[in-house]
Design a protein that fits this description.
870 residues; mainly beta; Immunoglobulin-like; Ubiquitin-like (UB roll); 24-stranded antiparallel β-barrel; 6-stranded mixed β-sheet; 5 helices; globular; signal
């Protein structure tokens, strides 16, 4: 497992100096220092702090104390540190970073291999000037090699931030994370998620109760993810009629990443992909490409922008006037192939600004349909299994394969096949990106045999043809997000249709289907109009299904308002028209301000209803939510009023909800609880409902620390907390807020980046320092105080504190250890000491800190060297 949190964080080479140490030493060390203003040094340069040695007196041997190492802050000791690396603000991963002494500074010294890992393309570097060659094995600061390059090492966060001009970077997609940093999580861990609800309904003296419990169990073993889900329901019929109980196992499967193939292997129960064929449930084996493994900038469809720069130039890409990408390119041909997918927002306007001020512009057509892929991108699946349908006696075994490939900017080819003993289907299609919009066109052929005699022939074959269109009209900004039409001949069957017919069921065989979604923004921020609709008819049914809706929506300074009108025609030939007016009004400007909502609906049958509701959240973490409503309905001359309320509360262990409503002699009540138990190497930790990937935080002694990634989650008494959901294959920042921690614990790390694999249970360790906060006053054998600014080192040579005026040192968690104070090099310039906690007093309880004196013996100095690094 790749652990992105080093347990020795802030202890590599030296411990980070804590700002609290400096503050406390200033408060508790007595009188303020004084000095002759005329003796003060000249003002330091920006970013530096210079100390006047005259303020601090002399050492025990009469020499001035050397404080130059503090002129530029808390500089680390030269050595190798495990740190998070960021390139142009994007997280690259955790790597070993070497710091070396360069004159008066300690700076990152990077090898050629390290710079190549950062993305530096050495072939693009100038042969002379600011750049200097880096031979194999040697290292140099980044700015000495890459003109315009910058680097900054943050010791307190163990983070290296690097800025590299785009023109010197190797082509690499934005957001790319090397698979070596994909964390498979704990080699052995598991969970049990649950959702339990009870519901009671009463009307006219009769009552009915229902109980429902669903569970999802998982076990991760060496990269394999084993999953099982099921549900138990029970219905109490009331009136002495007894009860009905049923249990259904939903699915069971094992899954594993196929990293090199950017795919998932699934064995057991799953769903077939829905990109080309209708999705069905099956039990078998499947290999399917996983788009989540690609950087976000390579997901979906976006064209490659190609052009030529005559000089070093700035390339800007805009869509509807919004800047979506900008970079600097060297003279010659350039290619931009990592644009984010915004296919429904219109064509790309590209501007090339040369270094001499000359500007060139051109347009790249950009519209998208679901089947379009980027050039050279591919999407595939291959499976073998048996159709799952508990209502069928005979289910077919089948093979299915699909493949999509982006051929160039304008063309994607795709196809697939399903093969069973008595059923076959073949599909071929093409998708196009053109100046007049994006199209996809495909055709499918199906053949079925051995069907039972009855309402259809024993052999059936047919074809299905489909056209899809998408386009944003730039003149009016009218957006046809989806316009699709499919026509099927009489004998065409999908796999599920064949299985139902094979069992004697009646199937409505679709003849044609039309679908349209249009969005039209109005000028002057006047809102937007929308239109959605679909219509379909069948070969073996006279009636059609038709539904369409048109409406208007607008956001206002005080809330939002919308109106819609729709019409439906169902399979029985009955038509109905519906109207809906709704508005929403926030009662305040804070994030937890209540929301007042109102709606009014009516239809062509003279049915009318109105509802008023008030909802909001409460709590510091917004983990409590509520909703109160009242409604009135008029149906066929009769009217009824009702009202109710619901609440939900989430904490670290579970989410709880309750609701009650009633009106006109009926009432309903419900209670629910959902959550999980997570089994990990450190024990068992309760959690909220879990996502696909999640993390277990270990922060010993940090009970009460708030997890920043989940509402209501805090570290429990055992030192664990569960972050219930993380995005797989993406850099997720997990944070802990130390607010509320006791005085006897300190978090050495408050945030960490992790890239989980799908389904992984990641263990994240947040190191803590436990122990009574102490102010220790050091005294030499002759009674003199230790010089101000002396370093306090532990037995490994790690710096743990600084000595303040009067010999005071702020320490925590070092009780009983062999420590030493060092104020220079050579014999007689360091001393060793131990200290013990004093009895707890009322003064200690009030201040949170204990004070004790400790003799510091030069003769007992441990043989440790602060420069020992790690």
């Amino acid at each position: 497992m790749t652990n992105l949190v080093d347990p020795r964080r802030n202890r590599a080479g030296c411990k980070a100096m804590k700002p609290l140490s400096v503050l406390l030493l200033a408060v508790f060390s007595g009188q303020a220092w004084a000095a002759d203003a005329a003796a003060a040094p000249s003002a330091p340069s920006s970013g530096e702090t210079q100390f006047n040695p005259a303020f601090f007196g002399k050492t025990t041997d009469g020499k001035a104390l050397d404080l130059s190492r503090f002129d530029k802050g808390n500089q680390p000791v030269p050595g190798t540190y495990r740190a998070d690396v960021y390139v142009n603000q994007s997280w690259l991963g955790r790597r070993d970073v070497t710091l070396s002494q360069q004159g008066a500074d300690v700076v990152p010294c990077l090898t050629r291999v390290m710079m190549e890992a950062l993305g530096v393309d050495f072939s693009k570097l100038p042969s002379s000037g600011a750049a200097q060659p880096v031979t194999d094995g040697a290292c140099a600061p980044l700015p000495a090699v890459v003109p315009g390059g910058r680097q900054n090492f943050d010791l307190s966060e163990l983070k290296l931030e690097v800025s590299i001009p785009q023109r010197y970077l190797r082509g690499q997609a934005r957001g790319y994370v090397d698979p070596q940093y994909w964390d498979a999580g704990a080699p052995l861990a598991g969970f049990l998620s649950y959702n339990a609800n009870t519901y009671r309904y009463a009307n006219a003296g009769q009552s009915r109760s229902q109980y429902f419990v669903s569970a999802n169990a998982g076990l991760n073993v060496q990269g394999w993810r084993l999953r099982y889900s099921g549900a138990l329901s029970q219905q109490e019929l009331g009136g002495g009629q007894g009860s009905l109980r049923s249990y259904q196992g939903s699915s069971a499967y094992a899954q594993h990443d196929l990293t090199d193939w950017r795919a998932q292997l699934t064995i057991g129960d799953s769903l077939t992909p829905s990109d080309l064929f209708n999705s069905v449930s099956f039990r078998g084996v499947q290999i399917q490409s996983d788009d989540r493994m690609q950087p976000e900038s390579l997901q979906g469809y976006a064209p490659v922008v190609r052009g030529v720069a005559d000089t070093q130039a700035r390339v800007s890409v805009r869509q509807n006037g919004t800047l979506i990408y900008e970079t600097t390119v060297p003279p010659g041909e350039f290619k931009i192939d990592d644009l984010y997918n915004t296919g429904y927002a219109g064509d790309l306007n590209v501007t090339v600004t040369e270094s001499n001020g000359r500007i060139k512009q051109f347009v790249v057509p950009y519209a998208s349909v679901p089947q379009l892929l980027r050039p050279d991108a591919r999407r595939y699946s291959l499976l073998a299994g048996r159709l799952r349908n508990d209502n069928l006696n005979r289910v077919p075994d089948f093979l299915q394969g699909t493949y999509q490939r982006g051929l160039n900017n304008s063309l994607t080819g795709y196809g697939g096949a399903i093969v069973s003993e008595r059923y076959q289907q073949l599909m071929l299609g093409m998708a196009f990106n053109t100046r007049i919009g994006a199209f996809s066109v495909d055709a499918a052929q199906s053949n079925a045999s051995g069907l039972p005699a009855g309402l259809h022939a024993s052999k059936m074959s047919g074809q299905s043809y489909s056209v899809t269109y998408s386009k944003l009209l730039p003149s009016t900004l009218t957006n046809f997000t989806v316009a699709a039409y499919r026509y099927s001949t009489d004998g065409y069957l999908e796999l599920s249709d064949f299985a139902n017919l094979d069992n004697g069921a009646v199937v409505n065989r679709q003849r044609s289907r039309f679908q349209l979604n249009v969005d039209q923004p109005l000028p002057g921020n006047l809102g937007r109009l929308f239109l959605t609709g679909s219509a379909q008819n069948y070969w073996n049914r006279a009636s059609s299904d038709v539904i369409y809706q048109a409406g208007y929506a607008k956001r206002l300074s005080w809330g939002s308002v919308s109106f819609s009108a729709g019409r439906t025609l169902n399979s029985l030939g009955l038509a109905s028209t519906q109207y809906l007016l709704s508005l929403s009004l926030p009662l305040g400007k804070s994030a937890s301000a209540p929301q007042l909502s109102a709606s009014y609906a009516s239809d062509s049958a003279q049915n009318r209803s109105g509802q008023l509701s008030l909802s909001g959240t409460a709590g510091e973490q917004h983990n409590f939510s509520y909703n109160v409503f009242g409604s009135n309905q008029h149906n066929g001359g009769a009217s009824a009023s009702s009202g109710g309320a619901s609440v939900q509360y989430a904490n670290s262990a579970a989410t709880f909800n309750a609701a009650a409503s009633g009106g006109n002699g009926s009432s309903q009540q419900s209670l629910g609880m959902s959550g999980a138990l997570v089994f990990h190497p450190g024990g068992v930790t309760p959690a909220q409902t879990l996502g696909d990937s999640f993390a277990v935080i270990e922060a010993k002694g940090a009970e009460g620390a708030v997890v920043g990634n989940a509402s209501g989650v805090t570290v429990d008494g055992s030192g664990y907390a569960v972050v219930p959901s993380l995005m797989p294959y993406r850099a997720n920042e997990v944070s802990l807020d130390p607010k509320g921690l006791g005085d006897n614990v300190e978090l050495q790390l408050t945030s960490s980046d992790v890239v989980p694999r799908a389904g992984s249970i990641v263990m994240l360790k947040f190191p803590t320092v436990l122990g009574q906060a102490m102010l220790v006053r050091l005294k030499l054998p002759d009674g003199q105080s230790i010089p101000v600014g002396s370093a306090v080192l532990d037995a490994q040579g790690h710096a743990v504190a600084l000595v303040g005026q009067g010999g005071w040192v702020f320490l925590r968690g070092e009780q009983g250890q062999a420590l030493r104070a060092k104020w220079g090099e050579g014999e007689g310039r360091s001393c060793g000491f131990h200290y013990q906690l004093p009895p707890v007093s009322a003064k200690t309880q009030r201040s949170g800190f204990a004070r004790v004196e400790a003799p510091c013996d030069i003769a007992s100095t441990p043989q440790a060297d602060a420069s020992s690094g790690r």
